[in-house]
Here is the input.
Amino acid sequence: MSHLVPAHGGGSLKPLLLEGEARAEEVRKAARLKRVPMTSRETSDLIMLGIGAFTPLPGFMGQDDWKSCCDEYRLPAQGGLFWPIPITLSAEPSLAGSIAIGEDVALWDTETDALMGTMTLEEKYGIDKDHECRQVFRTADAKHPGVEKVLAQGAVNLAGPVKVLSESYYPEMFPSIYQRPDEARRIFEERGWSTVAALQLRNPMHGSHAYLAWVAIEVCDGVYVHQLVGKLKPGDIPAEVRVRAIDALVSKYFRKERVVQGGYPMEMRYAGPREALLHAVFRQNYGCSHLIVGRDHAGVGNYYGPFDAQRIFAEVPAAPWPCSPSPWTGRSTATSAARWPR
Here is the structure.
């Protein structure tokens, strides 16, 4: 029996990635379907759905979930499940208008020109982009990289359950650290861990990162150095460079039996406090009980205060969790850690 925290929502992981003959059959079927192009952000979200990192979401959100997620951090379609950032797929009106409700479509990554999955269309709807940006990013400034992405997306959102057919280039490009949630959980269980602190990194590890990880090792069974290997904004240090830098530091200065390295394929949104909450949610799916929240976590420029991402854990609306007794608790300090109740 596992002693790790349950997946988000209290159940088991729900990966949507097909393999074997089921995948081959869906690929054959997709060749006959209309193509829906996806941005890099949408593609990375689809992969997160595929590997179970976005458990228990069945696909891209409908209108009620989109609005409630923006305003209330909750998903009505999932019984009021806590979720901090919309996971949506957009399309231009001409394409959306050509797809009937109930129709299956092929999801196509425009950057790599590759089939990524299929979706059964259940809903199509327009959104208020300005509202989403102000709720999620706390700004509608087009210079904010996350806002820029939302403003550039299609005018219509397409919603429905998905079947995922590819993890793109991530397993091959980052073979030493790329992990699915079930793989990370298996490692933690083999080590006998029950409390695991995730250290989110999108930059090379500096002294403060290392100190926070060392402190976490003293209060948890182990630390999961979990790097983002998805797309970053221009000017950020490339993932392949950062992975080598962090591996050198961890290998030389950390107790190997108390630390695990991993990588995940999500694209950065730079949503500050809201993204810190999302980082906590999917780290629970990876088996982590704690998240180290540092200064200006997931921030960019001067859009957020240095400790806003820590304070938000105490500010999220209180409501019952499906299969869970209460939301996380957090401390508004420079070394705060969010924790799920056991």
The two ends are 14 Å apart (CA to CA). The chain has a mean pLDDT of 91.
